[in-house]
Each structure stands twice: as structure tokens, then as C-alpha cells.
Amino acid sequence: MSESSICPKCQSPYGYPTGSSMMCPECGHEWNPNENTPATETETIADDVVKDANGTILQNGDTVIIIKDLPVKGSSKPIKSGTKVKNIKLTHGDHNIDCKVEGFGAMGLKSQFVRKSN
Prior knowledge:
The chain is mainly β. It has two domains: 3-47, N-terminal domain of TfIIb (Single Sheet), CATH 2.20.25.10; 49-116, SH3 Domains (SH3 type barrels). 7% of the residues lie in helices and 27% in strands. The chain has one helix and eleven strands. The protein has one helix at 41-48; strands at residues 16-18, 21-23, 30-31, 50-51, 57-58, 64-66, 84-85, 89-90, 97-101, 105-109, 114-116. A three-stranded antiparallel beta sheet has the order 1-2-3, with no helix packed on it. The protein has a three-stranded antiparallel beta sheet with strand order 7-6-11, with no helix packed on it. A three-stranded antiparallel beta sheet has the order 8-9-10, with no helix packed on it. It is elongated and about 50 Å long.
């Protein structure tokens, strides 16, 4: 396995070429394998910080509580306020939390609609 196929952001060994650059299928990071400038720890932390509605920093595996009723496409009932969601996974994009909500299944949530559980 080539050293250039290892993602510099998440260390995934599954990087693949996309013309003149490499792409990570796990985190979506794109990099130039000819450059030897890995992201510094400060840059990585700044990109990966996800905060809840109260400004508390969230991490993978946290438990959160939904703070308002959220409508779900394809369902006649919303996810109720106060629903506890365990073992979240942080992602990049508009819906930056992937999780499984009991009674609804796997879905993406926006961090602005949750608060970290104690």
C-alpha cells in the first residue's frame, strides 16, 4: 500500500486517486499526494469542532438530547423534544451528526437542535 493513499486527516488506508489528487471515502478529505504538508493539529481541531445548541463541544460517542420537535420526511410523526440519542457520530456537512433514533432508525441531525446529555 502506498503511503500517499493514507488519508492525512483520518488515517484511513482507503484513499483513491481522482486525477491529480487523492480522495478519502471515509471522511471526504481531498489532498495532493505530491505535497508533503500534512495538516497541523490546530487546523484539524478547528475543522472538526462541532458544538451543540448551548456551545458545548460534542465528540463521537456522546449522548445528546433533542431540544425541539423535529419533523421527519416520510413519517407522519416528528421526533419529540427530549428524545435521548446515544452514541452519535460526527460528520462534515449540513447535518453534522449521524445517529440512530429509537423508533425512527438511522438519520442525520443538525447540532443546533441538540444539547449534550450529562
